[in-house]
Amino acid sequence: MARIIAGVASSHVPAIGAAIDNKKTEEPYWKRVFSGFEKSKEWMAKTKPDVAIVIYNDHASAFSVEMIPTFALGCAAEFPPADEGWGPRPVPVVKGHPELASHIAQSVILDEFDLTIVNKMEVDHGLTVPLNLLFGSPKEWPCPVIPLAVNVVMYPPPTGHRCYMLGKAIRKAVESYPQDLRVVMFGTGGMSHQISGPRAGLINSKFDKAFLDNLSRDPKKLTRIPHLEYMREAGAEGIEMVMWLIMRGALDDKVDEVYRFYTVPASNTAVGHIILENRGKASTKSKRGAAPKRKLAAARSRTQRIASKHSASC
Amino acid sequence: MPRTPQDYDDIPGTFVFDAERSRQGYGINMFCMSLMKDENRKAFKANEAEYLKKFKLTPEQTEAILKRDYNRMLELGGNIYFTAKLGATDGRSFQQLAAMMTGSTQEAYAQMMLGGGRSVEGNRSKSGRDKPAGKSKAKSQKKSRSKRG
Fold it and tell me: ipTM of the assembly?
């Protein structure tokens, strides 16, 4: 049986991708951002998921205004990086997992989430930047990726509650897939930012930090945030954070916060990042066998120490 | 027909790209999308007004594009991810566009971002509902105002 073992949330600022592509990661401005993901890369290298489901939004690359699907699930075998005006990013082609993706589509549509199925799609920085932040810049991405594109460009995006419930439906779908797969969910976008109009440049760290706290401990509270509040408090484009709730909905109610990072700014945006683990995740791969309870508890307290160390820098 | 009033119209300095603006600005956004192709960028640069005739645009929309009035484009239904393609055609970065829209120089805008960005205090509402959602007017508002002016 396939299982969701963890969730990762991360901003997907395009300038982060440009900094990687133009080899500026060692410049002080960018080092501040990238150093926050060093531990995350280590975590990911240890976790080695079999599949990643990446929730992101397209930025006028694959979808123009001709078609605006609310939820579009990528069921193709591969997704080439999109040309966003400067040529496609020099990152590997994203390999999909068509079998699991179509299984998810079938399951969640019967659960009343009317997804759009996409069998041909290019993916932009919204998807590839978080992959870089967690996997680095390898020649091939280490695991297949199922993209789930969410409309957060045209108002109204789906509500936070709807996103959270979709996450739960995706979890149910994954758990009904017969093959033994360890799946990590990515929620991307955010945090507070506004890049349009005279109020551009808005940042609200207080809102962001409360959002991270609640994402970890009380996600249901977040599902009640109305769109107006996201836009007022976190900027017109801060509304992207509803996508994080799909990731969170797919996890256990109680999770372990493994790591957190927050910094302002990357270009126009507050960068937020969190890693949450399902507690039963260690016993999911049959060949690893069930970890003794004591070991699990030790691992938990270790991860909490990392988290608390880092909350000081947040 | 005037625009249907919305609760988010109360947010200052913000043009929410909603379904109504999406309908109204279809021509602007499709024009911007066409600039993803190099041959179209060249054709546009060679004769801007002529190139714009290929799209269904109102005279106000055409004027906003020709004048590079980015806020007006947003007001008339343009979306920032699309209008940014026009910016890129002119060789302008996202941050340069943001500075233009806020009426600031790029340097001043970049400094503001390095200083933690534009504060939400005093920027929540046109109608004076300027308090954090779910909280009473906190002392932090005063503190923050004095800090960021």
Answer: 0.88
